[in-house]
Amino acid sequence: MLYAAAFILFVGLVYALFILPTQWLKVERIRHPIGINRTILQVSDLHVERLRISPSVLSRLITRQKPDYIFITGDFTKQESCLLRLDSYLQMLEKHRIPTYAVLGNHDYQQRKVTRLIRLLRYRGIILLRNESVRLPGFQLIGIDDHHTGRSNVLQSFRMTDSQAPRVIITHDPNVVLKIRDSYDYLMAGHLHGKQFGIPYFYKLRPMGELPAKGIYKGLHQHPYGTYYISKGIGQTGINIRFLVRSEVTIHHL
Questions:
Q1: For the segment 156-213, what is each residue's pLDDT rounded down to a tens digit?
Q2: Alpha carbon distances (Å) from 243 to 19, 239, 248
Q3: Is residue 214 packed enough to be buried (19+ CB in 10 Å), middle (13-18) or exposed (0-12)?
Q4: Is CATH 1.10.3470 correct for 2-253?
Q5: What is this structure's pTM?
Q6: Measured distance CA(147)–CA(237) in Å, rounded
Q7: Which CA distances in Å does 163 have to 36, 63, 182?
């Protein structure tokens, strides 16, 4: 009886410490007024092959929050076999009819043919930005392609923009901010998962670029050219657990 109780306690602790953080979705709220009076839902790092947040949970959240835009900051999936599962999330987003913009992440480029993912995103009405910009009411949206895989082109991304209207950037790898030499008002990124495992010196063991080496891997930060935010992401990579780091989506009030 004692062994059974100990086993149940052990299983409960494993679930609470490693599995629950992947299912217990946290909604971070950031207020950083830049004068555009828009609410944006950022979803990052879906990794649908290891995602425990269902489309219905996200759908209810969108219904409650009523964002003006949805920005997806990369890493949909690295497995072509998971595109059908990804499509269940994309169909949900399509039904909400909220303008949705996205960039690709390093895991997306690990697919044998990333063009299949690109076609699916466009088919579901998601506007993919690859080192380019669009003008939206009251601001410019810039999408910088993935820096980790060497596909970012900052100069090309900024080419059709000007400094007279607010510039908002979406990108996957936040390390790209160290390459930006032009002013922007706000940048959203992901990639680092808030470490995924809340243990000290994690990025000493697993180098992920200059920012995490300096202890910058989540939250709101200031750079000489603008303010940027790093999401902890909604899915997992490597192994499907988190430790002391909950899955996150972010509401940005700009």
A1: 999 999 888 999 999 999 999 999 999 999 999 999 999 998 888 777 777 888 999 9
A2: 8, 11, 13
A3: exposed
A4: no
A5: 0.96
A6: 18
A7: 14, 34, 9
